[in-house]
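Re: export button greyed out
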Amino acid sequence: MADSARYHREKFHRYALEAQKFDSGYVSLPNRYIDPNSGSRTYEKINLKGTGTILSFTIIHIASNQFSHSTPYPVAIIETDEGARLTAMVTDCDINDVKIGARVELVFRKIMEEGESGIINYGYKAVLI
Amino acid sequence: MRDVAIIGVGMTKFGELWEQGIRDMFAEAAIKAMDDAGVKKIDSFYVGAMSSGLYTYQEHLSSLMADYMGQIGVPGLHVESACASGGSAVRAAFIEVASGMSDIVLAGGVEKMWDVEDGTIVLATASDQEYEAYNGVTFPGLYAMMARVYMEKYGLTREELAQVPIKNHKHSVNNPNAQYPFEISLNDVLKSSMVADPLRLMDCSPITDGAAAVILCPLDRAKEFTDKPVKIRAVGAATGPIALHDHKDLTRLEAVKLAADRAYKMAGLSPADISFVEVHDCFSIAEIIVAEELGFFEYGTAGKAIAEGQGTYGGKIVINPSGGLKAKGHPVGATGAAQVIEAYYQLTGKAGARQVPDAKFGMTQNMGGSGGSCIVHILEAL
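Workaround output, generated via the alternate export path:
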């Protein structure tokens, strides 16, 4: 179990999809001090619209204890329309409908609970659109 | 830089070692290696382990291992680079000997994986904790997403993918230290339980306890200890993105190519010079992508080539003569050192029924996470 500070510092990314657009065009979620490709340190903060495309996916059948109650569940690598790459569960769908190239929208969801008296964690998941 | 040689090796059997703790396993491997080399005192050592803290609640491995291998007083260092910890320990020892800082240096690795109930959460720490593991992806899930793109892009079939573990299990039959030294059938792979679609249990390396250690010294002193030293001709290392989603091409493991290119350049060799390679087949798809990044096959062709027998005896190159991570076992932090031991056996003619004939150069490739780090060694028979 972690202290709440661990989740507090991620809230803008997880709840508001805050990302950085570097002057090189590279878009990052989460924050970086430097674009790993161009070396640029100049960026503006943007909020992702939340729409994107599935680049790859898997159906998780064996999960860690935190997620084992949800198996089987899909997880996908998504490229948002702004160009940010991220990994998210795909939810509220028939797992047979998850495909490479499928369009998705990121939505606010509960991610996990740290036991009966621990923190309830939130973040983004993807739904098919 | 001085030339560096391996003068002795030691390892535990790989498997479910219920009677041995982390200190027992590493001490066994280290003492075997010292006895093999005929050295009573080492100058320094490195111990690779991915997560002794999460697996056993034990850190401070430098002190613990020096104490239990009978070397109190010598400097030691715990090296961590996820699944590439063992290879990283060998590289660190190589640098220390090559630099002239020390003469007799032990490098090894260890992992005690069977003491915890939820090993999946430990392995996921090799990925991006806040942006991959937090969102429910497991370690097999990351390689499953590589496999899905690779299969779609290159037309690799599920049956062809299955030939990687089938081959590695076939090789392991002749390895007395292997965890699962038996053959498996196509049906065994295709009917094994799904872990992360499209990867099934028989695509995945197992949970393994074990330790491995090697002794390095300057090449010009090697004959004091053994008639058959093996030269470490080159080492190449590289890092890649921590998160799989930040790989530009999901069918590539670019850190492997970077590390291999550095090793080939240092050695003055090319892929055609290498007789066998121990690769990091943590998952079946990993062996295919790695074999391409190391330059043994063109991109998109290694899966079909291995399925056609090009990765075994009589083929283009023998891949994983030991049985690989899949069949020999994968005690995470020990794996990179155990790969070097297999190369040592092969290059000294001690590999028994799995001997690769007339091998002059062998390679080992050890990888962390989803390609976040990679260590490549090229070893030479003398």
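Chain B touches chain A at residues 118, 120-121, 124, 130-138, 140-141, 144-146, 148-149, 152, 193-199, 241, 243-246, 250 (CB under 8 Å). The button fix ships in the next patch.
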